[in-house]
Amino acid sequence: MNNMCLHVWTSSDGETTFIEITCKKEDPMLRKNMLQRLLVNCLLLFCLLPIGYSYAFEARGQECSKCHTLNKDEARDLLKNIIPDVVILDVRLSPVKGVWEVNLESRGRKAIVYVDYLKKHFFSGALVSIGERKNLTQERIIELSKVDVSQIPLENALVMGDQKARIRVIVFTDPD
Question: FRET partner for 62 with CA separation of 20 to 30 A, picked from 23, 27, 73, 81?
Fold first, then answer.
């Protein structure tokens, strides 16, 4: 410890004693060790904080959706101040754990938004699977938009060609 200096002095009133320890030369290994410890502690803190946020029982084999629920009325109450004239069409679990998929309509437009289990955040936009390189939101919108053509009434339709053809093309027009 020949690099350390110890200074002791007393104030002018004689009641307070000051002690100062200074280093004449900084030890680079000591500084590096302290920085490494600080970095490791910060990383551990950063990594461990999110654990248990909404996956409290998953490690114990319990399904989180048993405790966390969201129905259409709750979803409407959560979103009504953010999305005007919102009508909730469906609520289901999303492909992402801890998030619900909410199928909604507002002002004649259909959309999908995602709400977290804690009901504090929602987001809209594309949910993309990185590994599969698939837009899961777009796939879900296509699935919801499918129309069963066998349910389209053809009583007043103008049929051209074979009425019993295997492949049919249905054209919608507005003559007005």
Answer: 73
The DSSP code for 138 is H
Name the nearest CA neighbour of 95 among 145, 131, 52, 50.
131
Examine residue 172 and state whether it is found in any structural domain, yes or no.
no
Q: Which domain holds residue 43?
A: 4-48
Identify whether 90 is part of a domain.
yes
Cα–Cα separations (whole angstroms), residue 1 to 21, 24, 31, 111, 129: 12, 10, 16, 69, 58
DSSP per-residue codes, 115-130: EETTSS-EEES--EET
Q: Is 66 exposed, middle or buried (0-12, 13-18, 19+ CB in 10 A)?
A: exposed
142 located within any domain: yes
Question: What is the separation of C-alpha 65 from the centre of its chain, rounded to a whole number of angstroms?
Answer: 16
CATH number (domain holding residue 133): 3.10.450
Asked whether residue 96 is assigned to any structural domain, the reply reads yes
- Amino acid occupying residue 90: D
